[in-house]
Write the structure tokens for this entry.
Amino acid sequence: MAEKVSNLRVFEDEAGKMNRSVLDEGGLVLSIPQFTLYGNTQKGRRPNFMEAAAPEQAKVYYRRFNELLAEQNVHVETGVFGADMDISLTNDGPVTLILDSPKSQGNG
């Protein structure tokens, strides 16, 4: 996933096409741990977090993801695992991407 994030061409080139990566742009990644994104809402009216990794394991995954990004020569800024964080974001553009890895599905 770190390789995908660092090389995903989501920034516009001179022709206005999404052909440039965070590496090409010399950008940085803000990596925020957010276990609630793994909530399943397919059944009922309350999110189910049963398939999310246990906090101890999730923290290991989160740290390793950030290490792998850094190994790809991406500058990484991180949030604090398990903290109640107030994050502001200005989304500049009409594109939202959701990245998922088949390798991780079903593994918590």
Summary: The radius of gyration is 16 Å. The beta strands are 11-12, 18-20, 28-31, 75-78. The chain has a mean pLDDT of 87. Residues 43 and 86 are 29 Å apart (CA to CA).
